[in-house]
Automatic annotation (TrEMBL):
Residues 1-181 form the Histidine kinase domain. It catalyses: ATP + protein L-histidine = ADP + protein N-phospho-L-histidine. InterPro entries: BphY/WalK/GraS-like, HATPase_C_sf, HATPase_dom, His_kinase_dom, Sig_transdc_His_kin-like_C. Pfam families: HATPase_c. One of its GO terms (biological process) is osmosensory signaling via phosphorelay pathway. SMART domains: HATPase_c. It is an enzyme of class 2 (transferase). Keywords: ATP-binding, Kinase, Nucleotide-binding, Transferase, Two-component regulatory system. Its EC number is 2.7.13.3. This is histidine kinase. The keyword Transferase applies. SUPFAM superfamilies: ATPase domain of HSP90 chaperone/DNA topoisomerase II/histidine kinase (SSF55874).
Length: 215
């Protein structure tokens, strides 16, 4: 009974944290991020280690292809949350004994990411909706917050994020980020609020909208 209660409490804490993070990202007005120079691998390493621990139980492996080092100027907290959510999403939809591919490439002042699973993919008519808050499918569960947080975090860095189905099955989340975000005269990074944002109320449970994974 106690382990189950602990798990329920942990899930609730995680959900509240996700809702608060999304509310912080979507609030009106300029939003300042806190950029520092970091090594991308230092940012990704704890996320990939967590993936290894969780993936072992189902035999799911992550295959990383990319540089050993890559300096990036970013807000580490926001990008950690973004990539953690994207990779957890890929793990959730990967079949047992499957693989998740993580490709990192660098070009002309930008760094590009592609995280691909071999799950059921998304109905093409609904693929543009998966970055909306509280949109989830009918297979993987979850609250539908992870990819919405990832999109906001990426856009606040002046980046782009999009999804496409893989040929042969599965979904790829693509992300392109500048190696250094733009700053104003005070050295503070600002971004316009996300268009179409809405207030997130944490005292009223949201009603999640489902999208269909292809089979």
């Amino acid at each position: 009974m106690l382990p189950r209660m602990d798990a329920d409490i942990a899930r609730t804490d995680h959900l509240v944290g996700e809702i608060l993070m999304l509310a912080r990202l979507e609030r009106g007005g300029a939003f300042a991020i806190k950029p520092v120079a970091i090594d991308l691998i230092d940012l990704l390493d704890p996320i990939l280690r967590d993936f290894d621990l969780e993936g072992q139980a189902r035999g799911v492996r992550l295959l990383y292809t990319g540089p050993d080092r890559q300096e990036l100027i970013c807000d580490p907290e926001l990008l950690h949350r973004a990539f953690d959510n994207i990779i957890r999403n890929a793990l959730r939809y990967s079949p047992d004994d499957g693989t998740v591919d993580f490709l990192v490439t660098q070009r002309a002042g930008r760094v590009d990411f592609a995280i691909s699973d071999i799950g059921p993919g998304i109905d093409p008519a609904q693929i543009s909706n998966i970055f909306q808050a509280f949109v989830r499918d009918d297979v993987g569960g979850g609250a539908g917050l992870g990819l919405a947080i990832a999109e906001n975090a990426v856009r606040l860095h002046g980046g782009k994020i999009w999804a496409n189905n893989r040929v042969g099955g599965g979904l790829t989340i693509n992300c392109s980020l500048p190696l250094a975000p733009h700053t104003n005269s005070n050295g503070i990074v600002y971004s316009k609020p996300w268009l179409g944002c809405r207030p997130v109320m944490i005292d009223s449970p949201p009603c999640a909208t489902c999208v269909n994974r292809n089979h």
